[in-house]
Amino acid sequence: MKLVRKIALRTMVGAAFALAAGTSAFAQGKPVTLGFSQVGAESAWRTANTVSVKAAAKDAGINLKFSDAQQKQENQIRAIRSFIAQKVDVIAFSPVVESGWEPVLEEAKRAKIPVVLTDRAIDVKDPSLYVTMIGSDFMEEGRRAGHWLEERYKNEPGPINIAELQGTVGSAPANDRHAGLMEVIKSDPKFKVIASQSGDFTLAGGKQVMEAFAKTYGKKINVVYAHNDDMALGAIQAMEEAGIKPGKDVTVVSFDATKGGFQAMVDGKINVDVECSPLLGPQLMAAVKDIVAGKPVARRIVTDEGIFPMNVAAQVMPSRKY
Ligand code: AHR
């Protein structure tokens, strides 16, 4: 399940950037310098991702310049500009949101510094602004959750009222986990999304939004669809405080499949957790080395992931790495 498959599409863009980069660190036998702008530290997933990136850089002998954007796009733009000024060999970043990246990425392109996206995609017209994107297929994750819900409620007439706890507004996982779910349930009118609000991928945000949902909709809610485990754990606290039994009165669907999410499944409070792996460091360092060495890299590297219903949680939990 943890294997990474590389889509066969090879990119000339990568090769072009690589040749430019190949004249610097690699050609001169110097250690490669990678500037990495992280989203922040909003979730257990993010913490595990940071650990993975730092450990993989160390193992690969890559000089890592790490910057935490504290979930603000302007901080990421500032960090990328600073990496350009420092003439790093490669820039990688996990974009807070999808839009608004053209100007700074054009600056990186003019400076001939290749850019790698990790974890989250961006919305740009010019495909040459980045070499490759390494991470999950969030649409597919949303579809997986939708199909699980179809199966769970196949013998019930409905309505099945869904309260959605969205991730950061404008981020790829929030956009795609919503869209993937909608794509699946749109053909069955018994499923209704009655409430949808962002909890910004944090436990506190999930709790706050769920408190408001519980007050407004109470027992009308059949399903909580939380875009990550941290928000699901916050929502569980809010439901329990409101006298609602998560996992029993309300079906809880979550994403990431962190240890915290698994524990909540073992405790009977999350019904299903769709996996999203944060362990992207080794793939990132391999791509960075290939780019600097002038080798072509796949345009898209998709992490292979699964889905865990609560009945397998106790058995699988000991093997979880994050
Ligand atoms: O981009 C990945 C998402 O960001 C994870 O699902 C979430 O936990 C994190 O904050």
Question: What integer value in Å does the Rg equal?
Answer: 21 Å
Q: Please state the structural category.
A: alpha/beta
- What CATH architecture of the largest domain do you see? 3-Layer(aba) Sandwich
Contiguous helical run count: 12
Strand content: 15-25%
Globular, elongated, flat, extended or rod-shaped: what is the shape? elongated
CATH class of the largest domain: Alpha Beta
Measure the end-to-end span: 15 Å
Instruction: Find the CATH superfamily of the largest domain.
Output: Response regulator
User: Based on DSSP secondary structure assignment, what is the total number of beta strands?
Assistant: 13
User: Would you list the SSEs in sequence order as H and E?
Assistant: EHHEHEHEHEEHEHEHEHEHEHEEH
Largest sheet: 7 strands, mixed
Low-confidence stretches: 1-16
The helical percent reads 40-55%
What would you call the quaternary organization?
single chain
Distinct small molecules: alpha-L-arabinofuranose
Biggest sheet strand order reads 1-12-6-5-4-2-3
